[in-house]
Amino acid sequence: MSRRVLRALLLAGGVSAVALWLAVRLVPFGVETLERYPASLTLTDRVGQPLRVWLGPQDLDCRPLYEPQPGDWIAQAIVASEDQRFWKHPGVDAVALLRAVKQNVTSFRRVSGASTLSTQVIRLIEPRPRRLWAKGVEAFRALQLEQACEKKTILAQYLNRAPFGSNIVGIEAAARRYFGKGAADLSLAEASLLAGLPQSPSRLRPDRHPQRAQKRQRYVLDRMLACGFITAREHADAVAQPVAVRPSPYPFRAPHFCELVSVDPAHGRGTGATVRTTLDSALQRVAEESLRRHAAVLAGGGIRGGAVVILEVKTGALRALVGSPDYRARGDGQVNGALALRSAGSTLKPFAYARAMDRGQLTPQSVLADVPALYRDYEPTNFEPSFRGLVSARDALVLSLNLPAIEVERRIGQPEFYATLRALGLDTLNKPAAHYGLGLVLGNGEVRLLDLVNAYASLARGGGVAPVRVVEDETPLATRAVFSPEACWLVTQMLSGDERAMDTTGHAADVRLPPLAWKTGTSAGFRDAWTVAYNPDYVIGVWVGNPDGASADQLVGRKVATPIVWEIFRRLYPDNDGPWFAQPAGVRSREVCAVSGIPPGPHCPHRMEDWYLDGVTRYETCLVHRPDGQEHWPTEVASFLNRQRAPAVGRSAAAAAVRITSPARSGTYRLLDAVAGGVQQLPLQAASGEGGERLHWFVNDRYLGESRPGVPLFWTLQRGAFQIVCSDARGASDRLQIAVE
């Protein structure tokens, strides 16, 4: 060959190389195509463990989760068997190409190919007919791919797109389906077995053709040894290791939660995404087990449904959701009780009290009247057909008395209360405020358990409401203030405390529980039983009822829903410890009249301490006590008290100098056999006009002991009906009746 011809060939080759280099760099390469997969919608829990898989286009199971790590066996196995110079070539392996051309030409048939992982990625993304021109296009695009991406990214693209038999696409789906584990957790033997499948996925499927698969596995292991990726000992161990293929069913965990996530347009079915949800598998398991255990007992009473929601306060993350005791149960199992519209019962009352406190109209010791009343054609009654006369706001809330709640609602205005509930996210209350009337505070509207729990989260986080999160998000929770931190703290204190004995199944001061606040509810006709409890970490809500709305005598919140909440909290805090809320700076204490619950006037015989909101709570002097020594109440209250012969009406100041403040009058308490040690105690406490005097206590005329005003004396509960009397040395006394079941 002449020098002129050689120079011409070199020049032509150089020009071609430059032209190819310019084309590779200047011709657009659609990097965005790398983000498109025939992917399933894969939902995982908060740590990445699969919960549910919805198949992608053409019913393909593709889970593009895998990112190669240097020590992963599958990454090394694929490189050794498919493209041993992958880490060195620019997308086209010139050595392999020249070898393939030589072998194919001399043999007059196709003996070997020169595909690289890069060209195979292009083929998987942009399928073309298997023609010579297509290979040229693939080689060109592979060079572009190498310019646009790192080698690690290209390897991940291949492993997440390669076929592995049946409808399985990608190594993550293959590892999960064949071995029930993630790709990064594959052993050398398992990885080498799967690495052989993409060459001929149907022919080499290990669950159908194990001998063929093992033969290909041996080839992969030989290539890994030849490339220096494994030692001879590792090779021998992998060959000798029996690989048990265990076809794994698709994950089916937390079904109601997964259905909730999948219907969101942002990450719903058909989006081809992997969504890391907020679900905490450990909490989900606790919720499922607790509900299932109690549901087995309740089924005997004709109660078939129940739901549990656990929400994390600081993040707004939904950590657990159980929509029914058994999703697979015929009939009602797939009805999601956490999202069903149900009558709210008394669960809305705390929000009315919080709003009244923010308006300066109420404090925990404010006295409310629990007496019969008629509002036009509406005559409300209590859950129990009796009235207690004068009660503190705290007792009224904990006892869930209806008349005091309606009075609180009237004070703030029913339209404003309705607007407050809507602001809390209870948007299922979608009729005009007038439609619900004053019965709104008693729960005559329908809510969802999930929304109700999120509304209570505003109390737990100091008044801020935020949407529920179902997808993990590192951004700080953005809240919108509905209540003040001070009002939330006061309501929380009212709904908690060791002496919380009015609205729970325990009714005892020393029931062993972590610190928490809770409220129960029961809908009219015994159709829905609720309990929502919270601390600074979590809000836990339970609904129990029948999905078809059928009533049952046992559907009372404190009887069937509260035990489930208590069990979950105990399992979260097995040592009965836990965080509690710090008192806001705006909450102060002041002296109030123990009879009226407002700042005392000069004629008030005895006093007690009460919390109030500094600069917000109204200051009004007690007008119940006047110089004549009588108690002056509104006509309807005085009339009721006279009919009941209440000792506070018509007594002189001297005779009224002792007043029992705990327990609640006419209260009913339940003795728990399961309480640790079998001992339950009730605090007996009274106020007196003489601050330091001794007070003497009698239970059914039997002397119990003495205490000081404002200092409790604890009495061990026993079943029966009891008259409790407190008297001082001057003969002044007060008495009340209680029952212990």
Structural class label: alpha+beta
| Percent helix range | 25-40%
Parts with pLDDT < 50 across at least 5 consecutive residues: 9-23, 108-112, 501-510, 645-656
Calculate the mean pLDDT score and round it.
85
The main β sheet shows up as: 5 strands, antiparallel
Shape: elongated
The portion of residues forming beta strands comes to 15-25%
Number of helices: 21
Overall number of strands:
26
Strand order of the largest sheet: 7-6-16-15-14
**Gyration radius over CA:** 37 Å
The CA-CA distance between the termini, in Å, is 113 Å
General description of the model:
With about 750 residues, this protein is an alpha+beta fold. Helices cover about 35% and strands about 15% of the residues. It is built from 21 helices and 26 strands. The strands form nine sheets. It has a five-stranded antiparallel β-sheet, with helices on both faces. It has a five-stranded mixed β-sheet with strand order 20-26-25-22-23, with no helix packed on it. It has a three-stranded mixed β-sheet with strand order 2-1-5, covered by helices on one side. Strand 1 and strand 2 form a beta hairpin. The longest helix has 24 residues, at about 5-25. The model is unreliable at about 10-25, about 110, about 500-510 and about 645-655 (pLDDT under 50).
